[in-house]
Amino acid sequence: MLEDLVAAIRKRRAILFAGAGVSMTVGLPSWGTLIEHIADELEIDLSEFKGTDLNYLTLAEYYRLKQGSIGPLRSWMDRNWTIPEDTLKASRVHELICRLDFPIVYTTNFDRNLETAFELHGKDYVKVVNAKDVARVREGVPQIVKYHGDFDDDGSIVIAETDYLERLSFESPLDIKFRSDALGKTILFIGYSMTDLNIRFLMHRLWKTWAGSGYERDRPQSYVFMLRPNPVEQAVLEQWGLQVLMERDCPPEEALETFLTKLSDAVESEEAGV
């Protein structure tokens, strides 16, 4: 199943899309921790919302309404979501991402962990957060595209409900860039549960573009690595051209590292002609 993915990576025709699960491998707080912090700061009793569908998007929107801006929350996240360099240096997952040498890495994470990992492993990169950064892209230099924003720019961060709804038009500079980058490339999603509405809608739009082109059979295969089997998710994602990959006989906390190790070994073996 990995042969096409390995070949695409070797030919530098694959894009990595990294989600929160990648940062959580080095101890980053979960979204649940963010919800608890917002509730504490705004003196909200979360027990009153048991049984309701209260998520961090709605809470962040409420935070912005009450505090006037997302700035203080962004500052708290920046302080608490910064991982020590020695921890990142020891992260096998981040090392493997660097070793696989994708020409473009998209991430919905706000933190700087990917950038720091690249620096620690001696890899040059260009960070892309907005339209201005697109002009800084250099041939042959990997790009780290902060698809949902970056801690260095409050205005870029997509965290509250309004931010997500506005992005559903998919007409922002980064959305246009993604459509251009991804249309003829293999995409590998890691660190996602695939419940992110933006990502699901994005893949649906990409599938519709190919379906309307008359050349759907020529679309490169894309993949999503999932920690646990989910036949419902798998069926829906596969109709949009996403092949689900798993490490079935591996504990969930070790699965991503195991998968990336096998993938890296396969890419290096083919490059060496083994």
TrEMBL record:
<dbReference type="InterPro" id="IPR014583">
    <property type="entry name" value="Uncharacterised_Sir2-like"/>
</dbReference>
<dbReference type="Pfam" id="PF13289">
    <property type="entry name" value="SIR2_2"/>
</dbReference>
<protein>
    <submittedName>
        <fullName>SIR2 family protein</fullName>
    </submittedName>
</protein>
<dbReference type="InterPro" id="IPR029035">
    <property type="entry name" value="DHS-like_NAD/FAD-binding_dom"/>
</dbReference>
